[in-house]
Amino acid sequence: MADDSTGENEALATALAAEHAAVWGYGVVGAALDPDEREPVTTAENAHRDLRDRLTALLTERGEDPAGPEGGYALPFPVLSAVDAAALAVTLEDGVAAAWVRVLDQGAERPSRELAMDALGAAEVRAVGWRAAAGRTPTTRATPGLPEK
Hints:
There is one protein chain. This protein is mainly alpha-helical. The chain has a domain at 19-62 and 77-134: Ferritin (Up-down Bundle), CATH 1.20.1260.10. The protein has four helices and no strands. It has helices at 5-31, 39-61, 82-106, 110-134. α3 (82-106) packs antiparallel against α4 (110-134). It is globular, with a radius of gyration of 15 Å. The termini are far apart.
């Protein structure tokens, strides 16, 4: 029988993969925006880099071999405008939110659950701004990271 940390470590590894994708994806988001519009991109990318680094260190401390980033990621749609860039940022934030919800579900240790709550809340705050920029309504979600009905 696996110990309680197995599911948690797998969920943390999934969150790490989502954070890698977000860091890469924000490079695409920034490239589609004018230089004077990139401050939120830089802020978001740095937040995802920090989470990526924290997850890598945490998994290493637990004796896991954390996966590195892929060489590239498939975009869900072409990013040809600022609205497309904002829509991609929403997709990135929704993706990490879903991964962090899984950490909450599988979290056996309080520090992991606290990290997940912080990351989930921050992802939704960023997503609200990007949803507004993409012209999406509603801009907020009652249950970030969970599938919409």
